[in-house]
Amino acid sequence: MTDTTTPWLQTLIDSLDSPQVSPLGEALPKFPSVEMQQNTTGLSADAALRAAHAFYTDVDRETLALGRELGPDTRVLDFGFGWGRISRTFMEKVSARNLHGIDVDPSFAELTRTLFDSDQFDFCAPFPPTRFEDGSFDLVIAYSVFSHLSERACAEWMREFARIVKPGGIVAWTTRHDSFFAFCEWARDQGDAVSAYVQGLGKLFPDIDDARRRYSAGEIVHGSSYDVSGGGPRDASFYGETWIPVQYARSAYAEHFDLAATCFDGTKYDQACFVFQRK
To answer: Tell me, which fold does domain 7-176+245-264+273-278 have in CATH?
Structure first.
């Protein structure tokens, strides 16, 4: 197998064990415990960074293609930042002073402020508005967030992004790929041999073929339960599992955004990436 580890990815990996600096000369953030990494992303250490870097690479490529090349002064909002796994990958080109984040979990805000030594990672409510002024950002990223939000939450956050992103700016997020239906189908037959979350996935749809049909017809598909959401800040009323088809994304957010690109490579990360440009 060909090694696709870039110098920047190698620096990120090296930062797991020793202090490293970005190409801009800024100290890279620290890491939470391996248990925290695993519980929040399903991955840890090298594997977690490789998936995050692959998303960053997709966004970097598409922003360049749209004439919005990343640079030190690019203002980025990481929506649903967790422990900052995605934000740190953008430090190859974006200065840490321009990385901001909001998350519904106040414990993540506290943790990531410490890891990054930054006060720019804040708690937010499950629904907008935010405290940001109009046109505050060049880029909004949201990895593994729109793969969980309800249809209402997706719509309201996209309207908020339309307000806080500059004209011509970019919004890039991921959603469940249709292949994840097969995992839910597999989970249905595993009984108590798997975690409560995986059991919840197996019970998500009484008729999974109907869910697939609705997705293929261009409908957003969302399902949730306590086991899937986990409760707490990520309440089942707005948080679960979400599949957004291309047809839906292109039309539902068309008032403010053009769907500029989509990409999926399950060998790199297991979600579909959608890139929008603000009109």
So the answer is: Rossmann fold (3.40.50)
